[in-house]
Give the backbone structure.
Amino acid sequence: MVREAWTDERLDDLKEHMNRGFVEVKEELREGRGAIGTTRAELKQEITDTRVELKGEIAETRTELKQEIADTRTELKGEIAETRTELKGEIAEMRTELRGEIAETRTELKGEISETRGEIGDLRDRMDAKFDRLTYTLIAALIGLLATHYLG
């Protein structure tokens, strides 16, 4: 059943009840704002702390990486120097071997050239002897022809 008329007393009660409700809502809003402000401050502090922590970790990691790079560089320089020394030794050994082989080959070639010169000299001497005999034979034949022609 709905009342059609409100008494002043009833309206005042309703007004008082409504005012209390508004006051409660305002208090709850203030508390919520306060909680939000506190949460915001806590989050800002947590973000700041995390940022500081991360900066420290990044700086530490950077320092570690620089040291590792420097150590690796030093290690590589040592390995390169060691390899260079080994290569110089191997090259010197090869150079010595090659010089020895070249000297052996030169000696062998000199012997072969000397041998070949001797063979060529022998051939030339034999050819000279044959040409001399041929010349004597031709001269004898020519004398024989002349003698036969004029004497006979």
The radius of gyration is 62 Å. The chain has a mean pLDDT of 90.
